[in-house]
Design brief:
The complex is a heterodimer of chains A (about 290) and B (about 190). Chain A is α+β, with helices and mostly antiparallel strands and about 290 residues long. Chain A contains eight helices and nine strands. In chain A, the strands form two sheets. A five-stranded mixed sheet of chain A has the order 2-1-3-8-9. In chain A, strands 4-7-5-6 form a four-stranded mixed sheet. The longest helix of chain A is centred in the N-terminal third of the chain and has 19 residues. Chain A is globular and about 55 Å long. Chain A starts with a helix and ends with a strand. Chain B has about 190 residues and is of the alpha/beta class. Chain B has a five-stranded mixed barrel with strand order 2-3-6-7-9. Chain B starts with a strand and ends with a helix. The chains are: A alpha+beta (about 290), B alpha/beta (about 190). At the A-B interface, helix 3 and helix 6 of A face helix 6, strand 9 and helix 8 of B. Bound molecules: iron/sulfur cluster. Iron/sulfur cluster (SF4) sits at the interface of chains A and B.
Protein backbone atom coordinates (compact mmCIF):
# COMPACT_ATOMS: atom_id res chain seq x y z
CA UNK A 1 0.00 0.00 0.00
CA UNK A 2 1.28 3.46 -0.67
CA UNK A 3 2.09 5.87 2.11
CA UNK A 4 -0.85 8.10 1.19
CA UNK A 5 -3.34 5.37 2.09
CA UNK A 6 -1.80 4.95 5.54
CA UNK A 7 -1.85 8.69 6.18
CA UNK A 8 -5.49 8.86 5.08
CA UNK A 9 -6.33 6.15 7.62
CA UNK A 10 -4.37 8.07 10.27
CA UNK A 11 -6.47 11.18 9.55
CA UNK A 12 -9.71 9.18 9.64
CA UNK A 13 -8.80 7.75 13.01
CA UNK A 14 -7.76 11.12 14.42
CA UNK A 15 -10.98 12.81 13.33
CA UNK A 16 -13.45 10.09 14.31
CA UNK A 17 -11.88 8.04 17.10
CA UNK A 18 -11.15 9.91 20.33
CA UNK A 19 -8.02 8.51 22.06
CA UNK A 20 -8.98 6.02 24.81
CA UNK A 21 -6.96 7.90 27.44
CA UNK A 22 -9.01 11.05 26.76
CA UNK A 23 -12.25 9.08 26.79
CA UNK A 24 -11.31 7.47 30.11
CA UNK A 25 -10.60 10.91 31.59
CA UNK A 26 -13.99 12.19 30.38
CA UNK A 27 -15.60 9.11 31.91
CA UNK A 28 -13.93 9.94 35.23
CA UNK A 29 -15.30 13.49 34.99
CA UNK A 30 -18.76 11.99 34.41
CA UNK A 31 -18.36 9.74 37.46
CA UNK A 32 -17.22 12.62 39.64
CA UNK A 33 -20.06 14.95 38.63
CA UNK A 34 -22.94 15.24 41.06
CA UNK A 35 -25.97 13.04 40.44
CA UNK A 36 -28.69 14.93 38.57
CA UNK A 37 -26.44 17.90 37.77
CA UNK A 38 -26.19 19.64 34.39
CA UNK A 39 -22.51 18.75 34.48
CA UNK A 40 -23.38 15.07 34.55
CA UNK A 41 -25.78 15.39 31.60
CA UNK A 42 -23.17 17.24 29.55
CA UNK A 43 -20.54 14.54 30.08
CA UNK A 44 -23.19 11.98 29.28
CA UNK A 45 -23.94 13.46 25.82
CA UNK A 46 -20.23 14.04 25.18
CA UNK A 47 -19.49 10.37 25.82
CA UNK A 48 -22.43 9.33 23.67
CA UNK A 49 -21.16 11.55 20.85
CA UNK A 50 -17.69 10.01 21.11
CA UNK A 51 -19.21 6.55 20.77
CA UNK A 52 -21.44 7.52 17.83
CA UNK A 53 -18.57 9.17 15.96
CA UNK A 54 -16.43 6.06 16.34
CA UNK A 55 -19.22 3.71 15.24
CA UNK A 56 -20.26 5.80 12.24
CA UNK A 57 -16.77 6.91 11.33
CA UNK A 58 -17.91 10.55 11.27
CA UNK A 59 -16.03 13.53 12.76
CA UNK A 60 -16.31 13.88 16.53
CA UNK A 61 -16.76 17.61 15.98
CA UNK A 62 -17.62 19.37 12.72
CA UNK A 63 -14.65 21.67 13.25
CA UNK A 64 -11.89 19.24 12.36
CA UNK A 65 -9.31 21.85 13.24
CA UNK A 66 -5.85 22.89 12.11
CA UNK A 67 -4.06 19.87 10.67
CA UNK A 68 -0.67 19.55 12.38
CA UNK A 69 1.90 16.85 11.58
CA UNK A 70 5.19 15.98 13.23
CA UNK A 71 7.19 13.53 11.14
CA UNK A 72 10.31 11.59 12.14
CA UNK A 73 11.91 9.89 9.16
CA UNK A 74 14.92 7.64 8.56
CA UNK A 75 17.98 8.72 6.61
CA UNK A 76 17.38 8.28 2.88
CA UNK A 77 13.75 9.39 2.74
CA UNK A 78 13.01 12.77 1.19
CA UNK A 79 10.92 15.40 2.94
CA UNK A 80 9.35 16.73 -0.25
CA UNK A 81 8.19 13.25 -1.21
CA UNK A 82 6.60 12.72 2.17
CA UNK A 83 4.94 16.15 1.87
CA UNK A 84 3.38 15.09 -1.44
CA UNK A 85 1.89 11.97 0.19
CA UNK A 86 0.55 14.00 3.11
CA UNK A 87 -1.06 16.53 0.79
CA UNK A 88 -2.74 13.83 -1.30
CA UNK A 89 -4.07 12.19 1.86
CA UNK A 90 -5.37 15.51 3.22
CA UNK A 91 -7.21 16.29 -0.03
CA UNK A 92 -8.83 12.86 -0.04
CA UNK A 93 -9.70 13.09 3.66
CA UNK A 94 -11.48 16.38 2.93
CA UNK A 95 -13.43 14.79 0.06
CA UNK A 96 -14.46 11.96 2.37
CA UNK A 97 -15.67 14.44 5.04
CA UNK A 98 -13.09 13.29 7.63
CA UNK A 99 -11.86 16.88 7.45
CA UNK A 100 -13.85 20.05 6.89
CA UNK A 101 -12.25 22.58 4.50
CA UNK A 102 -10.49 24.79 7.04
CA UNK A 103 -7.76 26.60 5.09
CA UNK A 104 -8.70 30.21 4.35
CA UNK A 105 -6.45 32.73 2.59
CA UNK A 106 -6.45 35.71 5.00
CA UNK A 107 -5.88 38.21 2.17
CA UNK A 108 -8.56 37.13 -0.31
CA UNK A 109 -10.87 35.46 2.23
CA UNK A 110 -11.06 32.45 -0.06
CA UNK A 111 -11.29 28.94 1.37
CA UNK A 112 -8.99 26.63 -0.61
CA UNK A 113 -11.66 23.95 -0.25
CA UNK A 114 -9.23 21.08 0.31
CA UNK A 115 -7.24 22.08 3.41
CA UNK A 116 -4.16 22.83 1.33
CA UNK A 117 -2.47 26.22 1.57
CA UNK A 118 0.63 27.92 2.87
CA UNK A 119 1.62 26.01 6.03
CA UNK A 120 -1.62 24.08 5.72
CA UNK A 121 -1.24 21.33 6.70
CA UNK A 122 1.54 22.37 9.05
CA UNK A 123 4.37 19.82 8.96
CA UNK A 124 7.52 19.66 11.08
CA UNK A 125 10.23 17.20 9.99
CA UNK A 126 12.99 15.56 11.94
CA UNK A 127 15.47 13.02 10.61
CA UNK A 128 16.22 10.35 13.18
CA UNK A 129 18.42 7.28 13.64
CA UNK A 130 15.61 4.69 13.46
CA UNK A 131 14.80 2.75 10.30
CA UNK A 132 11.06 3.50 10.27
CA UNK A 133 8.94 6.60 9.75
CA UNK A 134 6.69 8.03 12.45
CA UNK A 135 3.75 10.41 11.94
CA UNK A 136 2.25 12.31 14.83
CA UNK A 137 -0.99 14.06 13.95
CA UNK A 138 -3.01 16.57 15.93
CA UNK A 139 -6.29 18.19 14.88
CA UNK A 140 -6.51 21.44 16.79
CA UNK A 141 -9.96 23.07 17.00
CA UNK A 142 -10.30 26.75 16.07
CA UNK A 143 -12.53 27.71 19.00
CA UNK A 144 -10.04 26.34 21.49
CA UNK A 145 -7.12 27.94 19.65
CA UNK A 146 -8.85 31.31 20.11
CA UNK A 147 -8.60 31.12 23.91
CA UNK A 148 -4.85 30.43 23.90
CA UNK A 149 -2.75 33.32 25.22
CA UNK A 150 0.88 34.36 25.70
CA UNK A 151 2.18 36.26 28.74
CA UNK A 152 5.37 38.24 29.19
CA UNK A 153 6.67 38.09 32.73
CA UNK A 154 6.73 40.03 34.95
CA UNK A 155 3.03 40.89 34.76
CA UNK A 156 2.22 43.66 37.22
CA UNK A 157 -1.58 43.36 37.10
CA UNK A 158 -1.39 39.71 38.19
CA UNK A 159 1.61 40.26 40.49
CA UNK A 160 3.32 37.52 38.51
CA UNK A 161 7.11 37.49 38.68
CA UNK A 162 9.74 35.59 36.73
CA UNK A 163 9.50 32.28 38.52
CA UNK A 164 7.24 29.22 38.72
CA UNK A 165 4.89 31.06 41.06
CA UNK A 166 4.48 33.73 38.39
CA UNK A 167 3.86 31.03 35.79
CA UNK A 168 1.19 29.53 38.04
CA UNK A 169 -0.61 32.87 38.27
CA UNK A 170 -0.80 33.49 34.55
CA UNK A 171 -2.07 29.96 33.88
CA UNK A 172 -4.89 30.46 36.39
CA UNK A 173 -5.66 33.79 34.72
CA UNK A 174 -5.72 32.22 31.23
CA UNK A 175 -8.13 29.46 32.24
CA UNK A 176 -10.40 31.92 34.07
CA UNK A 177 -10.53 34.13 30.97
CA UNK A 178 -11.22 31.11 28.74
CA UNK A 179 -14.39 30.25 30.72
CA UNK A 180 -16.30 27.74 28.58
CA UNK A 181 -15.43 29.34 25.23
CA UNK A 182 -12.88 26.75 24.12
CA UNK A 183 -15.38 23.94 24.69
CA UNK A 184 -14.34 23.21 28.26
CA UNK A 185 -13.21 21.03 29.90
CA UNK A 186 -9.92 21.75 28.24
CA UNK A 187 -6.42 20.44 28.53
CA UNK A 188 -3.89 23.15 29.23
CA UNK A 189 -0.53 23.00 27.45
CA UNK A 190 2.09 25.40 28.78
CA UNK A 191 5.43 26.40 27.24
CA UNK A 192 7.84 28.34 29.44
CA UNK A 193 10.80 30.21 27.92
CA UNK A 194 12.11 30.42 24.36
CA UNK A 195 11.24 33.25 21.98
CA UNK A 196 7.59 34.08 21.29
CA UNK A 197 7.25 31.67 18.39
CA UNK A 198 9.05 28.69 19.87
CA UNK A 199 7.25 29.25 23.15
CA UNK A 200 3.86 28.62 21.52
CA UNK A 201 5.20 25.60 19.65
CA UNK A 202 6.42 24.04 22.88
CA UNK A 203 3.09 24.62 24.58
CA UNK A 204 1.25 22.83 21.79
CA UNK A 205 3.65 19.96 21.47
CA UNK A 206 2.76 18.95 25.03
CA UNK A 207 -0.60 17.75 23.66
CA UNK A 208 1.11 14.62 22.39
CA UNK A 209 1.37 13.52 26.01
CA UNK A 210 -1.21 11.09 27.33
CA UNK A 211 -3.79 12.01 29.96
CA UNK A 212 -2.53 11.56 33.51
CA UNK A 213 1.04 10.95 32.31
CA UNK A 214 3.65 12.13 34.76
CA UNK A 215 6.10 14.88 33.85
CA UNK A 216 9.72 13.60 33.81
CA UNK A 217 10.82 16.65 35.75
CA UNK A 218 9.72 16.09 39.37
CA UNK A 219 9.36 19.83 40.02
CA UNK A 220 7.05 20.22 37.04
CA UNK A 221 5.19 17.00 37.90
CA UNK A 222 4.25 18.44 41.28
CA UNK A 223 3.46 21.80 39.72
CA UNK A 224 1.06 20.17 37.22
CA UNK A 225 -0.78 18.24 39.93
CA UNK A 226 -1.23 21.34 42.03
CA UNK A 227 -2.48 23.38 39.08
CA UNK A 228 -4.97 20.75 37.97
CA UNK A 229 -6.55 20.84 41.42
CA UNK A 230 -6.55 24.62 41.59
CA UNK A 231 -7.99 25.08 38.12
CA UNK A 232 -10.75 22.61 38.90
CA UNK A 233 -11.65 24.70 41.94
CA UNK A 234 -12.61 27.60 39.64
CA UNK A 235 -16.03 26.00 39.13
CA UNK A 236 -16.30 26.84 35.41
CA UNK A 237 -17.22 23.28 34.44
CA UNK A 238 -18.05 21.80 31.04
CA UNK A 239 -19.08 24.49 28.51
CA UNK A 240 -18.89 27.02 31.35
CA UNK A 241 -22.15 25.73 32.88
CA UNK A 242 -20.45 25.36 36.28
CA UNK A 243 -19.08 22.15 37.76
CA UNK A 244 -16.18 20.23 39.20
CA UNK A 245 -14.22 19.54 36.03
CA UNK A 246 -12.90 22.64 34.27
CA UNK A 247 -9.70 21.06 32.96
CA UNK A 248 -8.87 17.46 32.12
CA UNK A 249 -5.14 17.82 32.61
CA UNK A 250 -2.24 20.28 32.67
CA UNK A 251 0.98 19.67 30.70
CA UNK A 252 3.97 21.95 31.25
CA UNK A 253 7.31 22.07 29.46
CA UNK A 254 10.19 24.53 29.73
CA UNK A 255 13.06 25.60 27.49
CA UNK A 256 15.95 28.02 27.95
CA UNK A 257 15.10 31.67 27.56
CA UNK A 258 17.03 34.80 26.68
CA UNK A 259 18.06 36.66 29.87
CA UNK A 260 15.90 39.62 28.85
CA UNK A 261 12.71 37.68 28.12
CA UNK A 262 10.37 35.35 30.00
CA UNK A 263 7.42 34.13 27.96
CA UNK A 264 4.71 31.79 29.10
CA UNK A 265 2.45 30.43 26.35
CA UNK A 266 -0.80 28.80 27.32
CA UNK A 267 -2.46 26.64 24.68
CA UNK A 268 -5.90 25.22 25.20
CA UNK A 269 -7.18 21.94 23.78
CA UNK A 270 -10.95 21.44 23.78
CA UNK A 271 -12.51 18.27 25.20
CA UNK A 272 -12.48 16.96 21.59
CA UNK A 273 -8.78 16.22 22.02
CA UNK A 274 -7.81 14.65 18.71
CA UNK A 275 -4.37 13.12 18.17
CA UNK A 276 -2.97 9.89 16.74
CA UNK A 277 0.44 8.41 16.03
CA UNK A 278 1.43 5.95 13.32
CA UNK A 279 4.67 4.21 12.42
CA UNK A 280 5.33 2.64 9.05
CA UNK A 281 8.19 0.13 8.96
CA UNK A 282 10.46 -0.57 6.02
CA UNK A 283 8.72 -3.94 5.50
CA UNK A 284 5.41 -2.10 5.11
CA UNK A 285 4.06 -3.02 8.55
CA UNK A 286 1.93 -0.28 10.17
CA UNK A 287 1.27 0.38 13.84
CA UNK A 288 -1.07 2.96 15.36
CA UNK A 289 -1.02 4.58 18.74
CA UNK A 290 -3.01 7.39 20.34
CA UNK B 1 -34.95 17.29 35.69
CA UNK B 2 -35.25 17.56 31.95
CA UNK B 3 -38.06 19.64 30.46
CA UNK B 4 -39.52 18.69 27.09
CA UNK B 5 -40.57 21.51 24.80
CA UNK B 6 -42.38 21.24 21.48
CA UNK B 7 -41.92 23.93 18.86
CA UNK B 8 -43.67 26.25 18.12
CA UNK B 9 -43.96 27.28 21.77
CA UNK B 10 -45.95 29.97 23.58
CA UNK B 11 -44.43 33.00 25.29
CA UNK B 12 -45.99 31.87 28.54
CA UNK B 13 -44.22 28.51 28.46
CA UNK B 14 -40.87 30.10 27.57
CA UNK B 15 -41.16 32.60 30.43
CA UNK B 16 -41.35 29.68 32.86
CA UNK B 17 -37.79 28.59 32.00
CA UNK B 18 -34.93 29.51 34.30
CA UNK B 19 -31.16 29.46 33.86
CA UNK B 20 -29.74 26.00 34.43
CA UNK B 21 -32.84 24.20 33.12
CA UNK B 22 -32.07 21.24 30.90
CA UNK B 23 -34.37 21.09 27.90
CA UNK B 24 -35.07 18.64 25.07
CA UNK B 25 -36.46 20.48 22.04
CA UNK B 26 -38.64 18.86 19.38
CA UNK B 27 -40.28 20.39 16.32
CA UNK B 28 -39.29 22.86 13.62
CA UNK B 29 -36.43 25.34 13.91
CA UNK B 30 -34.21 27.35 11.57
CA UNK B 31 -30.42 27.65 11.28
CA UNK B 32 -29.02 31.12 10.73
CA UNK B 33 -25.54 32.60 10.89
CA UNK B 34 -23.91 35.95 10.08
CA UNK B 35 -25.28 36.57 6.57
CA UNK B 36 -28.78 35.40 7.47
CA UNK B 37 -28.86 37.72 10.50
CA UNK B 38 -27.61 40.65 8.47
CA UNK B 39 -30.36 39.99 5.90
CA UNK B 40 -33.09 39.70 8.54
CA UNK B 41 -32.14 43.05 10.03
CA UNK B 42 -31.54 44.95 6.79
CA UNK B 43 -34.24 43.51 4.50
CA UNK B 44 -36.71 41.86 6.89
CA UNK B 45 -37.63 39.13 4.38
CA UNK B 46 -41.05 37.49 4.75
CA UNK B 47 -40.20 34.01 3.43
CA UNK B 48 -38.76 32.97 6.78
CA UNK B 49 -41.41 34.64 8.94
CA UNK B 50 -43.85 31.69 9.31
CA UNK B 51 -41.05 29.35 10.39
CA UNK B 52 -39.59 31.72 12.97
CA UNK B 53 -42.77 32.83 14.73
CA UNK B 54 -42.75 31.24 18.20
CA UNK B 55 -39.87 29.01 17.17
CA UNK B 56 -36.11 28.92 17.59
CA UNK B 57 -33.02 30.09 15.66
CA UNK B 58 -30.00 27.77 15.72
CA UNK B 59 -26.52 29.26 15.29
CA UNK B 60 -25.07 26.45 13.25
CA UNK B 61 -23.12 25.98 10.03
CA UNK B 62 -23.92 22.36 9.25
CA UNK B 63 -22.15 19.82 7.08
CA UNK B 64 -24.94 18.63 4.77
CA UNK B 65 -25.18 15.95 2.08
CA UNK B 66 -27.83 14.61 -0.28
CA UNK B 67 -28.77 10.98 0.36
CA UNK B 68 -29.71 8.32 -2.23
CA UNK B 69 -33.30 9.60 -2.36
CA UNK B 70 -32.10 13.07 -3.21
CA UNK B 71 -33.07 14.42 0.21
CA UNK B 72 -30.86 16.69 2.29
CA UNK B 73 -29.31 15.15 5.38
CA UNK B 74 -27.31 16.75 8.21
CA UNK B 75 -23.95 15.02 8.74
CA UNK B 76 -22.47 17.23 11.45
CA UNK B 77 -24.37 19.99 13.18
CA UNK B 78 -22.78 21.36 16.35
CA UNK B 79 -23.38 24.93 17.52
CA UNK B 80 -21.19 27.85 16.45
CA UNK B 81 -20.12 30.86 18.53
CA UNK B 82 -23.11 33.15 19.11
CA UNK B 83 -21.39 36.41 20.01
CA UNK B 84 -20.97 37.28 16.34
CA UNK B 85 -24.73 37.86 16.10
CA UNK B 86 -24.85 40.17 19.10
CA UNK B 87 -25.37 43.34 17.01
CA UNK B 88 -28.43 41.81 15.29
CA UNK B 89 -30.00 39.34 17.69
CA UNK B 90 -32.31 41.48 19.80
CA UNK B 91 -33.81 43.11 16.69
CA UNK B 92 -34.31 39.75 14.97
CA UNK B 93 -36.03 38.29 18.03
CA UNK B 94 -38.43 41.22 18.16
CA UNK B 95 -39.12 41.50 14.44
CA UNK B 96 -39.85 37.81 13.97
CA UNK B 97 -41.24 37.02 17.45
CA UNK B 98 -38.66 34.30 18.03
CA UNK B 99 -38.87 32.38 21.34
CA UNK B 100 -35.34 31.09 21.58
CA UNK B 101 -31.78 31.15 20.30
CA UNK B 102 -29.52 28.08 20.31
CA UNK B 103 -25.78 28.55 20.14
CA UNK B 104 -22.62 28.40 22.19
CA UNK B 105 -20.70 30.82 24.36
CA UNK B 106 -23.71 32.93 25.36
CA UNK B 107 -24.51 36.49 24.28
CA UNK B 108 -24.25 40.05 25.59
CA UNK B 109 -26.34 42.64 27.40
CA UNK B 110 -28.29 43.80 24.36
CA UNK B 111 -29.55 40.30 23.66
CA UNK B 112 -30.28 39.63 27.33
CA UNK B 113 -32.51 42.70 27.32
CA UNK B 114 -34.13 41.64 24.05
CA UNK B 115 -34.94 38.22 25.51
CA UNK B 116 -36.62 39.91 28.45
CA UNK B 117 -38.65 42.29 26.30
CA UNK B 118 -39.90 39.82 23.70
CA UNK B 119 -40.13 36.78 25.95
CA UNK B 120 -37.42 34.43 24.71
CA UNK B 121 -34.44 32.48 26.08
CA UNK B 122 -30.92 31.52 25.07
CA UNK B 123 -30.37 27.78 24.86
CA UNK B 124 -26.76 26.61 25.02
CA UNK B 125 -25.93 23.47 23.04
CA UNK B 126 -22.82 21.47 23.88
CA UNK B 127 -19.95 22.40 21.57
CA UNK B 128 -18.28 19.57 19.73
CA UNK B 129 -21.32 17.27 19.49
CA UNK B 130 -21.13 17.24 15.68
CA UNK B 131 -22.34 13.69 15.17
CA UNK B 132 -24.87 13.43 17.99
CA UNK B 133 -26.70 16.66 17.20
CA UNK B 134 -26.86 15.83 13.48
CA UNK B 135 -28.62 12.59 14.45
CA UNK B 136 -31.25 14.59 16.35
CA UNK B 137 -32.09 16.45 13.14
CA UNK B 138 -34.68 14.03 11.81
CA UNK B 139 -35.65 15.95 8.68
CA UNK B 140 -34.58 18.85 6.50
CA UNK B 141 -37.82 20.54 5.50
CA UNK B 142 -36.72 23.54 3.44
CA UNK B 143 -33.68 25.58 2.59
CA UNK B 144 -33.54 29.27 1.68
CA UNK B 145 -30.70 31.36 0.21
CA UNK B 146 -28.57 28.28 -0.42
CA UNK B 147 -27.17 29.57 -3.73
CA UNK B 148 -26.56 33.08 -2.45
CA UNK B 149 -25.03 32.24 0.95
CA UNK B 150 -23.59 28.72 0.59
CA UNK B 151 -24.23 25.69 2.81
CA UNK B 152 -23.07 26.90 6.22
CA UNK B 153 -24.78 30.31 5.96
CA UNK B 154 -28.11 29.32 4.39
CA UNK B 155 -31.43 29.22 6.30
CA UNK B 156 -32.03 25.49 6.90
CA UNK B 157 -35.53 24.73 8.15
CA UNK B 158 -35.16 21.51 10.11
CA UNK B 159 -37.21 19.20 12.25
CA UNK B 160 -35.49 18.01 15.41
CA UNK B 161 -36.32 15.39 18.01
CA UNK B 162 -35.06 15.58 21.60
CA UNK B 163 -32.40 18.15 20.82
CA UNK B 164 -30.45 18.61 24.12
CA UNK B 165 -29.78 22.16 25.35
CA UNK B 166 -29.35 24.08 28.60
CA UNK B 167 -30.98 27.46 29.33
CA UNK B 168 -28.12 29.85 30.10
CA UNK B 169 -29.96 33.18 29.61
CA UNK B 170 -33.62 33.42 30.59
CA UNK B 171 -36.39 35.93 29.93
CA UNK B 172 -36.03 37.51 33.38
CA UNK B 173 -32.59 39.07 32.90
CA UNK B 174 -30.57 36.21 34.38
CA UNK B 175 -27.42 34.84 32.77
CA UNK B 176 -25.63 31.68 33.86
CA UNK B 177 -22.55 32.97 32.02
CA UNK B 178 -22.42 36.06 34.21
CA UNK B 179 -22.92 34.01 37.35
CA UNK B 180 -20.17 31.48 36.55
CA UNK B 181 -17.82 34.28 35.46
CA UNK B 182 -18.31 36.24 38.69
CA UNK B 183 -17.82 33.19 40.89
CA UNK B 184 -14.72 32.04 39.03
CA UNK B 185 -13.21 35.55 39.16
CA UNK B 186 -13.71 35.55 42.91
CA UNK B 187 -11.96 32.21 43.21
CA UNK B 188 -9.16 33.42 40.90
CA UNK B 189 -8.52 36.38 43.21
CA UNK B 190 -8.24 34.02 46.18
CA UNK B 191 -5.82 31.75 44.36
CA UNK B 192 -3.66 34.65 43.20
CA UNK B 193 -3.78 36.46 46.52
CA UNK B 194 -4.97 39.66 44.83
S1 LIG C 1 -13.43 24.12 20.30
FE1 LIG C 1 -15.45 23.11 20.33
S2 LIG C 1 -16.28 23.47 18.32
FE2 LIG C 1 -14.09 23.87 18.20
S3 LIG C 1 -13.12 21.91 17.60
FE3 LIG C 1 -13.15 21.95 19.81
S4 LIG C 1 -15.03 20.92 20.41
FE4 LIG C 1 -15.23 21.48 18.25
Amino acid sequence: MELKEHILELIRRASTDLPPDVEARLKRAYDEAEEGSTEKSVFNVILENVKLARENSTPICQDTGHVIFYVNYPLGMKEWEITEEIKKAVIEATEKNYLRPNAVDPITGKNSGNNIGKNAPYITYHCWDKDYIEFKLMLKGGGSENVGVQYKLPDASLKAGRDLEGVRKVIIDAVTKAQGFGCAPGTVGVGIGGDRGVSYLLSKKTFFRKMDSKNENPVLAEFEDRLEKELNSLGIGPMGFGGKTTVLDVFVDAQHRHPATYYVSVSYMCWAFRRKTMIVKSNGEVEYDD
Amino acid sequence: MTIKINLPVSEEEIRKLKIGDEVLLSGTMVTARDQAHKLMVEKKPDFIRPYLKDSVIYHCGPVVRKNENGEWEFVAAGPTTSSREEPYQADVIKEYQVRGIIGKGGMGEKTLKGLQETGAVYFHAVGGLGTLLAKRVVKVKEVFMLEEFGTPEAFWVIEVKDFPVVVTMDSHGNSLHKKVLEESLKREKELLGL
